[in-house]
């Protein structure tokens, strides 16, 4: 990793807030120059599903569209913009867009008439759209866009910088992982399942814990790094078919603090950015084995001291452990595993909202388990 270039890229994060907060600040400044602009938002592109997803919004204390995604392939004009890099202009939203789509209906309900969509690229890769909306008709055209260029450049910069930071953290963790082949085998499907469970739970508890789309996305992505400290544990211990002795159990528990050390090192290597997403990553790695009653490890935290990001991963992790084949046990069915989680809620260990979040999506959970099955221990390379 080129430490110097990473340092310079991320050093400006020293005092920034979330993308929602930054868009709100820019919006305030922009309204001095262009008072007719009523909203700035960024929709993130998910290339795995070809979906545009709500991510950040300058009006996030108001009536923002949240927790919503839609196939880009069904938005032909935006699809073309994502390929050509051209902007899209709308001046009469109620008559130009299909009102059967929830996002269009929402825009019309808010009284928006004009829209400017600016595609955003990171290293030539399309990552999403900046949207500017106005209640005034026919506000945007090429000359207005040119006059807004300084603001659009700032928005593009903060969007791509945050995207770059999040993915630098993920890529650095993946690189560390990939250097240990036996651990990589051990954990790749597990990471994919955990990420999907975490997303489902985060979306379900968003209204309870006031999670915005930016945080939900961070939790889903950074959940893949939760077990990075297990790289410090011999793979033979992780795949052991008999129960562990006390010393081995302690060695396994040490992986959390080792993980914190590894993540801190990665953060330092990319310039120690002081950005809210970095806190989410640290919380997940440090606290994903804590229980609400204080019986977890390594810190014995209780209740409110355990951040919601870590509570989500704890529930996802316990569910995954129960529903995966292990050398020493058969996988449990989804309903059976959920019953066990509910017992843990009753015993004061797990967050009930997080467990409910899984219960509402049992068919989806089954599909995830089928799509990312745990490799049978007998099929691992060392057995051939």
Can you walk through the features of this model?
The protein is an alpha+beta fold. It folds into two domains: 3-162, GAF domain (Beta-Lactamase), CATH 3.30.450; 180-383, Hypothetical protein af1432 (Orthogonal Bundle). Helix content is 53%, strand content 11%. The protein contains 17 helices and six strands. The protein has helices at 3-10, 19-33, 76-84, 93-96, 102-109, 142-147, 149-178, 181-209, 213-222, 235-238, 246-253, 255-269, 276-287, 308-323, 334-346, 352-359, 362-371, and strands at 37-46, 51-57, 69-71, 88-90, 114-122, 125-134. The chain has a six-stranded antiparallel β-sheet with strand order 3-2-1-6-5-4, sandwiched between helices. Helix 13 packs across helix 14 (308-323), helix 14 (308-323) packs across helix 15 (334-346) and helix 15 (334-346) packs antiparallel against helix 16. The chain is elongated. The model is unreliable at 1-15 (pLDDT under 50).
């Amino acid at each position: 990793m080129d430490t110097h270039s990473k340092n310079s890229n991320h050093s400006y994060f020293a005092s920034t807030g979330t993308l929602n907060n930054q868009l709100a600040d820019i919006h305030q400044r922009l309204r001095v120059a262009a008072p007719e602009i009523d909203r700035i938002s960024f929709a993130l592109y998910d290339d795995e599903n070809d979906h545009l997803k709500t991510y950040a919004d300058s009006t996030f204390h108001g009536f923002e569209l949240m927790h919503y995604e839609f196939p880009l392939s069904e938005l032909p004009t935006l699809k073309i913009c994502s390929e050509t890099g051209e902007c899209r202009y709308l001046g009469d939203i109620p008559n130009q867009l299909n009102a059967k789509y929830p996002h269009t209906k929402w825009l019309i309900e808010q009284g928006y008439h004009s829209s400017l969509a600016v595609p955003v690229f990171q290293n030539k890769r399309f990552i999403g759209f900046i949207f500017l909306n106005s209640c005034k008709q026919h506000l945007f055209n090429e000359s207005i866009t040119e006059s807004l260029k300084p603001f659009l450049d700032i928005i593009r910069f903060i969007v791509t910088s945050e995207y770059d930071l999040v993915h630098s953290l993920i890529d650095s963790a993946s690189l560390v992982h990939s250097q240990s082949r036996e651990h990589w085998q051990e954990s790749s499907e597990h990471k994919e399942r955990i990420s999907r469970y975490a997303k489902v739970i985060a979306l379900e508890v968003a209204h309870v814990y006031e999670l915005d789309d930016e945080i939900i996305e961070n939790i889903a992505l950074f959940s893949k790094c939760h077990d990075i400290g297990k790289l410090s544990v011999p793979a033979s211990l992780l795949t052991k078919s008999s129960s562990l002795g006390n010393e081995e159990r302690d060695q396994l528990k040490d992986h959390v603090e080792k993980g914190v050390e590894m993540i801190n090192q990665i953060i330092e290597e990319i310039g120690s950015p002081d950005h809210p997403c970095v806190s989410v990553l640290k919380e997940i790695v440090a606290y994903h084995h804590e229980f609400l009653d204080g019986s977890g490890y390594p810190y014995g935290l209780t209740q409110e001291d355990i951040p919601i990001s870590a509570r989500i991963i704890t529930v996802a992790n316990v569910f995954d452990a129960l529903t995966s084949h292990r050398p020493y046990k058969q996988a449990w069915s989804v309903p059976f595993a959920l019953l066990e989680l509910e017992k843990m809620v009753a015993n004061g260990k797990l967050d009930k909202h997080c467990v409910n979040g899984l219960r509402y999506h049992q068919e989806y959970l089954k599909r995830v388990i089928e799509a990312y099955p745990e490799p049978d221990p007998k099929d691992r390379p060392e057995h051939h």
